[in-house]
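Q&A log
Question type: sequence-to-structure
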Amino acid sequence: MYAFDYQRASDARGAVKALAADAEAKYLAGGQSLLAAMKLRLAQPSTLIDVTRIPELKAVTVDGGVVTVGAAVSHADVAEHTEIRQALPALAQLAGMIGDPQVRALGTLGGSIANDDPAADYPAALLGLKATVITDRRRIAADDFFIGMYETALEPDELIVAVAFAVPERAAYEKFRNPASHFALTGVFVAKYADETRVAVTGAAASVFRASALEQALQTHFAPEAARAVTLASDDLNTDLHASAAYRAHLIPVLAARAVAKALG
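Response status: OK
Response body:
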């Protein structure tokens, strides 16, 4: 590790102002990705601006059909929050599947989606649950937020304040996890709404994506067998030391079927 300055922001406006004043500064949330990158010299920020003590970034509200979670809320708090577990249990269950207890205690919703790791779990929840990313200056639909590998629609100094999730009729998440990192080798989030069914896939490509063939099949018949009957092309999927593209293409409908079965209870 090398020398850097540390600032603790007390409000969103102050955090954004501090970052805008220093092009080499970075926001610090849970630090689960940033600090590791710094240790490897892949990132060398001049200043870390800690946003985890900002009250509005720690808030959770449930209002009708919308669950809004502050960007600095930890994975563990999402998993254990009574109102989230009641209104949107699939989100709480997903948060409880992230990493290990130490990672869940420190990692945050905002940090995860801002980093946009191709194998992260939360991006699948955002796409599946018609989420809106709320920043210090605008609202971004999840469908427009994730652009590519480690790339989002955020401006360099933009700060995520919260994420608003639309509560579905039914939803569930299933993943085939990497046994070492607990990242998703492939993960599938399924959500059924009155007007549409959404299927979001993480861990299988350069960035999270929606599986339109599965969505169409499940919109017609929301049942495990409908998901298992879908065949996906492997052309744009990842091949790495953990699995081939063909294996991931096979795995996605299998996980989707398990998620549907879980959603149906």
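Response note: The chain has a mean pLDDT of 95.
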